[in-house]
TrEMBL record:
Family of the protein in this entry: Belongs to the universal ribosomal protein uL3 family.
Keyword Ribosomal protein (UniProt): yes
Origin organism lineage: Bacteria, Pseudomonadati, Campylobacterota, Epsilonproteobacteria, Campylobacterales
Molecular function as annotated in GO: rRNA binding; structural constituent of ribosome
UniProt keyword annotations, A-Z: Ribonucleoprotein, Ribosomal protein, RNA-binding, rRNA-binding
Protein's job: One of the primary rRNA binding proteins, it binds directly near the 3'-end of the 23S rRNA, where it nucleates assembly of the 50S subunit.
Pfam family, one: Ribosomal_L3
Name of the protein: 50S ribosomal protein L3
One GO BP: translation
Location of region: Disordered: 113-133
NCBIfam families in alphabetical order: L3_bact
Length: 192
């Protein structure tokens, strides 16, 4: 079973030892259409504005204006309507998938952890990548060469233990950290 969640932030629980936890708000979703293997199209509310495509989907599934985002998830039961949250009560381990924080275009020292060159005067090699290939053979840059570029903003999936689930507020407390900024939208999948 999968759910759409929003990362609230991090906190700690104190039960004999201090335990870092992440707080995830489970977004209420409506199951619109169910396909094979309990794969379903679900709709949920997001703060973004609508366009004609979304308006057509809302009309097709007779949804209100607030449900303006759609996703494909694996649901517990194949029933159309509100998504069932009872499997989260017994969940022990989840996999959380979020996009990491984007850091923009970065050099090799920040992106790949290169050491750089000597700090003394006149070296002209402080934070650069250095030579990128041999001039004679193969006469080109090899694929996979670590170079400067876009850092972060990639999808990462982590496994976390469930500490507790507050069904009234829809807040899931998981052990450790999950990727992304506070307020980031992602999805969780129950492992066991």
């Amino acid at each position: 079973m999968e759910y759409i969640v929003e990362k609230i932030g991090m906190s700690r629980t104190v039960d004999r030892v201090s335990l870092p936890v992440s707080l995830l708000r489970v977004i209420s979703t409506k199951v619109c259409e169910v396909g094979e293997n309990n794969k379903a199209i679900v709709a949920y509310a997001s703060g973004k504005s609508n366009n004609k495509t979304i308006a057509g989907q809302q009309k097709k599934y007779s949804l209100s204006k607030e449900f303006n985002k759609f996703a494909s998830l694996e649901v517990a039961n194949g029933e159309i309507g509100d998504q069932d949250m009872t499997p989260l009560d017994e969940a022990k381990v989840i996999k959380a998938s979020f996009n990491t924080k984007g850091k923009g275009y970065q050099g090799v020292m920040k992106r790949h952890g290169f050491a750089g060159g000597p700090k003394s005067h006149g070296s002209r090699f402080h934070r650069r990548s250095g030579s990128i290939g041999n001039c004679e053979w193969p006469g080109r840059v090899q694929p996979g060469r670590k170079m400067p570029g876009q850092t972060g903003n990639v999808k990462v999936t982590v496994k976390n233990e469930v500490v507790s689930f507050d069904k009234d507020n829809g807040v899931l407390v998981v052990k450790g950290s999950v990727p992304g900024f506070n307020g980031a939208m992602g999805r969780i999948r129950i492992v066991k």
